[in-house]
Amino acid sequence: MDAATRPQLRFLHDELEELKAKHLYRHLPILSGEQKAVTEVDGRTVINLSSNNYLGLTTHPKLRRAAIETTRKFGVGTGAVRTIAGTMSIHMELEKQIARFKNVEAAVVFQSGFTANAGTVSAVLGKDDLIVSDELNHASIIDGCRLSKATIKIFKHRDVSDCERILQETANWPGRKLLITDGVFSMDGDIAPLPQLCDLAERYNCIMMVDDAHSSGVLGRGGRGTVDHFGCHGRVDIQVGTLSKAIGSMGGYVCGSRDLIEFLYHRARPFLFSTSHPPAVIGACQAAFTLLESPDGERLVKKLWSNTKFFRRGLKRLGFDTGASETPITPIMVGDAAKAIEFSKALFEEGVFAQAIGYPTVPLGKARLRAIVTAAHKRADLQKALETIGRVGGRMGMGSA
I want to staple 99 with a disulfide (CB 3.0 to 4.6 A). Which of 3, 107, 144, 159 is the partner? Predict the structure, then answer.
């Protein structure tokens, strides 16, 4: 135990030792340079399969220029929360831009996708209300549900029949009802059955909410998300998106009706009690959405999907199980957490960075490497990664190599 640790915190050391014994302890990988398809992590040059930078926008020249120009004009910070003196004209401009992009009345930007989900659910629902939630929804949704103090009912993953069973059993619920799902599920890469869930929300008088963090910039025209992908415009009351993944910067947003956004101005605690985004972030996000609405944006989305299909086909030829993935999130199923960590470490030593994911992020016995393909990967990068995965996996008795 560290000599500086006070007795009151001895339990922290003990719990960390327990994590190590269970092979669940992990250090923070440190990038020495930019977030790119090939980058330097912990002093080693690696093919990066662990980033949410779906379209490669973290280093895009247009976003760099916008961040610098906005900083020169507005400074490096805002110095206040949005409701006092932290709302600049560029914050409002970005929110109008997002609303146009998503084909809704209004939008509001939060400090992160996590706070967007947690802040919205806990603001809209209360202790007399009901939340019906997919069992694999993101942690931010789970925390928002708990903070709301509403009654929570969980339906089996993507199981429309099980969802309807719950809604039938609670048809006479006296309070409000929220039906909530991820658009794309972050660990499995599969897509929610959104049209069928919208049908249920309408039939049973539920507020319909979708977290499109992993489908923003990925699905739909120019990356407009699952609502656009399925043609469900006007059927989803609350859409959550992120600025931290395909958009290439940082933050989250909620969009929907003007009344919804005005209500969140008054009741969403992360919005009320957090300093607003610095100008550089807002400028970069504005540039990203402008790019997505252009032919260049559509080309990036097509490149992302072309790379995804190439990589997944390669993994399947090598005999690896990619689960139920339908998107650039491509799990390489292993099962045992310790073996997944060993596989990840061995790949890293040979120049492929694909993080192991185990319990409690995924269920026990469902450990995997989560590989994410981006538009920035060159085919040579992906081919080299596949060859390395096949070779290392073969040595460990995985795949058919």
Answer: 107
